[in-house]
Amino acid sequence: MFKKLIQYALQRHRIPLTSVLCLVVLYVSAQTALSTRPRLDITQVPQKSQKPQDSVKHPSTARGNVKVIELVKAKRYKKRQNFEASVWKDSVIFFHDGAFLYCDSAYFDEKRNSFEAFGNVRMEQGDTLFMNGKYMHYDGNTKLLKVRENVNMEHLPQNKKNPVTLFTDSLNYERGIDIGYYFDGGMLVDSLNELTSFRGQYEPNIRIATFKDSVILKNPNFTLYSDKLKYNTNEKIAIFTTPTTIVSDSGIIRTSNGWYNTETEKSLLLDQSTVMNKKGNRFLRGDSIVYYKTSGYGEVFGNMFLQDTVKKVILTGNYGYYNDLDNSALATDSACCIEYSQGDSLYIHADTLRLLTIVDSVHISPIKPVSMDPGINSELLIPDFPAIDSLHIIDRFQNDSARVRMGLPADTMPLYTVAALQAADTVKEFRMIKAYYGTRFYRSDMQGVCDSLQFSSKDSIIHMYRDPVLWNTNRQLSGDTIDIFMNDSAIDRMHVKQYSFSIEEKDSIHFNQLKSRSLKIFFEDKKVKRILAEGNVETIAFPEERDGSLNGVLNWLEGSYLQVFMNTGKFEKLVVWPKPVGKTTPFHLVTEEQLRLKDFYLYDYIRPLNKDDIFRKAPKKATDVRPKRPAVFDREE
Question: What is this structure's pTM?
Answer without folding.
Answer: 0.73
